[in-house]
Specification:
Blueprint lengths: L7 E5 L2 H7 L3 E8 L7 H9 L1 H9 L7 E3 L3 E7 L11 H11 L7 E5 L11 H13 L3 E6 L1
Parallel strand pairs: 1-6, 2-4, 2-5, 5-6
Antiparallel strand pairs: 3-4
């Protein structure tokens, strides 16, 4: 793998549509530890890539858990859900990103804009720094903003 040719880009569009367009694209997704994919992009993933939801439901209660269905890597890094407080656990996210970064093949990781910083209440600047550290120096990374 040639790490020097990795790119980071930000585009407008739908992250799920973008992932489904090419086989080598994998969506990184922050999940809660309650077994619910009930709103936002999680709901869209559940409806359009149901195998990702089934993988998540097999092992979702422990922070830092990673499940995958091939097109989506579910990263359980959100402790609960609701507005007004931070539910994102940065330590769990770091562990999940480390596991995700161990892909053997050349893939393009796709991240929804403000992953972990919208519904999960995290700080997008911190999440971007973590993506740079764990992912962007090894893999192509595309951030997709609606």
């Amino acid at each position: 793998m040639n790490y020097l040719t990795c790119t980071v880009k930000q585009i407008k569009g739908n992250a799920v549509d973008y992932v489904l367009e090419k086989d080598e694209r994998i969506l990184l997704h922050v999940c809660n530890n309650k077994g619910v994919m009930g709103s936002g992009i999680a709901k869209e993933i559940r409806e359009r890539i149901p195998e990702a939801f089934y993988a998540y439901r097999k092992s979702y209660s422990e922070l830092g858990t990673v499940t995958s269905c091939g097109k989506v890597i579910n990263m359980v890094a959100q402790d609960g859900y609701g507005k007004g407080i931070r539910h994102l656990n940065y330590g769990a996210l770091a562990r999940c990103l480390l596991i995700a970064s161990m892909q053997k093949s050349r893939v393009e990781f796709v991240v929804p804009y403000k992953m972990g910083a919208d519904r999960a209440g995290g700080d997008w600047e911190i999440v971007k720094e973590m993506l740079d550290f764990f992912i962007a120096d090894r893999y192509d990374l595309t951030i997709v903003e609606l």
